Amino acid sequence: MAEPIVVFDLDGTLIDTAPDLLDSLNRCLDTVGLKRTDPSELRRFVGFGGRVMIERAFEAHGKPLVDGQLDRLYGMFIEDYLGGIPGKSAPYPGVVDALDRLSTAGYRLAICTNKMERHSKLLIEALGLTDRFAAICGQDTFPYRKPDPRHLFGTIEAAGGDVERALMVGDSRTDIDTAKAAGIPVIAVDFGYSDRPVGDLEPSKVVSHFNELTVGLAGRLIDAARSPARA
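RE: above sequence
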């Protein structure tokens, strides 16, 4: 019998990667003579990926991207970022304890991210967390990606989890929309990289610290999703 499962987004949910991603972005901007960006201006775009971050940085400077420049800068950005892993990136406070609680209670754990699979695994390995996850699935693991619910379903299957007893944890509209499309309850953390308050997106629950992600909360949300009359 498949086990209950909690599936996490990666950047902005489990791991605060923004400092390293923004540092890599600024080093790319240095190569084209653009002023470095203020992290507070672009942090909300981190969850959209490197290409969007580069585009937004150029927009902020009022500079157009010329033909082929985005691809070249993105290649530099990725090379710079991967070369520094894990850098300043670290689990958010309470993450490791929450993983321990859930694992001890019999939950399988997995990651479903729109970061590339290889990049995700490199980061998790560098942080010493690989053994905690039954599956780490990125944007290139399947022929589809979040918010397509098949990305989440595929991750649950790869981890050996029970889709009827599953919970997702994320920080953005993409995560919330994915879980809703899959019919799976979703907890939104309010400290990630969303470009709007996650509470406005109507997740099943909003938390401000991983200490709030208890075994009891996970069980209640899963039970409520399976039996709406008891919610």
